[in-house]
Design a protein that fits this description.
Helix content is about 30%, strand content about 35%. The chain is of the alpha+beta class. The longest helix is centred in the middle third of the chain and has 22 residues.
């Protein structure tokens, strides 16, 4: 298993769920999910196997060699099966803040109640890593306002709306808002 230099431990578990450093074996499944759900991502073009190979061999591999990587990516497992991936991205080590990244499998993403349950668990686990392990000051999301249930889970976990960018991005020929929700480490 790969190890992040910035983390004391590299596997985090809650009941049947685990966050482990992103696994090379997951790269093609992740590519498929990203291509299938491109409308909810900041990705502009479909990924190819060649692109994914290059990304994992250059960007991802280097994350494990850095004391302060710009992103900390995890494979999210349920009963040791990959169901999602994500992590902390756009990390600002000086200000101690990071953006939350999360992409659930396409099949599970299309089932709202299941999505909410998995997102809730993932957020709790990732918040623990960000605040307890890394001692970050703030974590946040930058998300398109196209799924109310996505934000509903965050509000229940005491995230607050930090910014609302009106009609900020064109998705499927429609201008949509972007919401930035944040949570501070007050503990």
């Amino acid at each position: 298993m790969r190890k992040y230099l910035c983390l004391q431990k590299n596997e985090f578990q809650f009941k049947s769920y685990k966050l482990v450093p992103i696994r090379d074996e997951d790269k093609y499944v992740i590519m498929q999910w990203r291509n299938e759900q491109i409308d909810i991502l900041r990705q502009k073009q479909l990924l190819t196997k060649e692109h994914q190979e290059n990304y994992f061999s250059t960007v991802v591999t280097n994350l494990f060699k850095q004391e302060k990587p710009q992103q900390i990516l995890f494979s999210f497992l349920e009963n040791d099966t990959l169901i999602a991936y994500g992590g902390l991205v756009h990390i600002d080590w000086e200000s101690k803040n990071a953006e939350i990244s999360f992409l659930l499998s396409t099949e599970l993403n299309n089932q709202i109640n299941i999505f909410k349950h998995k997102w809730d668990i993932y957020l709790k686990m990732l918040t623990g890593i960000a605040f307890n392990e890394l001692e970050f000051h703030k974590i946040y999301t930058y998300a398109y306002d196209i799924r109310d249930y996505y934000f509903e889970v965050m509000y229940k976990q005491n995230f607050f709306k930090e910014a609302h960018l009106k009609e900020h991005i064109l998705i499927n020929n429609r201008l949509v808002d972007i919401l930035i929700l944040s949570k501070m480490n007050n503990g």
